[in-house]
Design goal:
Blueprint: E1 2-4, H1 8-20, E2 26-29, E3 32-34, H2 55-60, E4 62-64, H3 74-78, E5 81-82, H4 83-91, H5 93-101, E6 104-113, E7 120-130, E8 136-137, H6 139-148, H7 152-169, E9 175-180, H8 188-191, H9 193-201, E10 209-213, H10 222-234, E11 238-244, H11 250-257, E12 261-264, H12 266-269, H13 276-291, E13 295-298, H14 304-312, E14 317-318
Parallel strand pairs: 7-9, 9-10, 10-11, 11-12, 12-13, 13-14
Antiparallel strand pairs: 1-3, 1-4, 2-3, 4-5, 6-7, 6-14, 7-8
Helix pairs in contact: 6-7, 7-9
Length: 341
């Protein structure tokens, strides 16, 4: 394996890590570290050994594994990946097994109307998975590994399909929110074929399907995101932006994307009934969205006061632990909780 650290300091740190791990290496040049790998022998570096390397350093270090001792060619270098990606791919074997074995499923969190009826308007489909021993796996962990190991497209796709299959299995007639990460979709016409086909084959009402953009604040290419949303709309679906109000860029996104729904960020709603600054900002966002004909969802509601505030200030619907926690079986009647504890 050949490593090409970007800076002298990174090289020194990398050499110290290799020495600490007891691995042999050579330095063909100042900018390259060669690590001979024995056939059939798995070489590993303990996670704590790489703690001295920052994520940026591991992301900047390029590496390539060759089947023999030859010097890398130009073609080999074009196939190089990042060190963090190589480690992630090694660590991602369990995630590949989870996807292959079908150990993914959806839980459902109800979204209710704010007219006092607590009628369920929709459910958000939330990804869950089990390890080989039956324990639950954190969705955040899965997506972090998938992002680093270049598996995000596969995980995002199976997440959408799992949400659709789970909604059909539970015979949900209300609307459903299905999350998707726009950075995993390089071309909507090809990447979303299986999703659209699954919905059509199930004869679901496209108007009841709302595709929710997650991590919209990290989407640098707004034109690309707009193309994805236009593709969904052309197929008859609706779209939503998550975590609205979390970043200053949200208003700019709103003006360019014109979503059907926005979700006010949970940190903005936390204690909104007792925090005048949050209340003023959230109320203005609700007023603006309502004036533009955009449905508003107050998420992260964890107390009766927060829910009542949403009811009194024009939010269309609300979602959060106070109303109901996510559950394997969709709750037709929300279970109000005294707190999120």
């Amino acid at each position: 394996m050949y490593l090409a650290p970007p800076h002298a300091q990174t090289t020194r740190t990398m050499l110290a890590v290799l020495r600490g791990a007891g691995l042999g290496f050579e330095q063909p040049s100042q900018d390259v570290i060669a690590i001979p790998l024995k056939p059939g022998v798995v070489t590993t570096i303990a996670p704590d050994a790489t703690a001295s390397l920052s994520r940026a350093e591991m992301n900047d270090t390029r590496c390539v594994i060759l089947p023999d001792d030859r010097t890398p060619t130009y073609r080999d270098l074009m196939q190089a990946t990042t060190l963090i990606g190589l480690i992630a791919k090694s660590d991602a074997a369990w995630l590949v097994d989870v996807i292959r074995d079908g150990r993914l499923f959806s839980w459902f969190q109800p979204i209710v109307r704010t007219d006092g009826s607590m009628e369920v308007f929709a459910y958000e489909c939330l990804l869950r998975a089990t390890a080989s021993d039956g324990s639950m796996i954190s969705p955040q962990r899965m997506f972090d590994i998938a992002r680093d190991a270049d598996l995000l497209f596969h995980l995002d796709r199976v997440t959408r399909l799992t949400a659709i299959e789970s909604s059909i299995r539970h015979n949900i007639t209300a609307s459903v929110f299905i999350n998707f990460n726009p950075t995993s979709i390089y071309n909507p016409e090809s990447c979303l074929q299986s999703t659209i086909r699954a919905i059509r084959d199930a004869r679901l009402n496209p108007g009841n399907i709302i595709f929710e953009v997650v991590e919209s604040d990290e989407t640098g290419d707004v034109k690309h995101l707009s193309k994805i949303l236009d593709y969904y709309r052309a197929a008859g679906f609706r779209v939503a932006l998550d975590d609205f109000g979390a970043e200053f860029g949200s208003l700019n996104l709103l003006s360019q994307l014109r979503p059907d729904f926005i979700k006010l960020d949970s940190q903005l709603i936390r204690d909104v009934d007792s925090d005048p600054y949050k209340a003023g900002l959230a109320a203005r966002l609700l007023d603006f969205a309502n004036s533009e004909g955009i449905e508003t969802i107050v998420e992260g509601v964890e107390s009766e006061g927060e829910y009542r505030w949403a009811c009194e200030h024009g939010a269309s619907v609300a979602q959060g632990y106070y109303i109901a926690r996510p559950a394997a079986v969709p709750l037709s009647t929300p279970i109000l909780t005294a707190s999120a504890a």
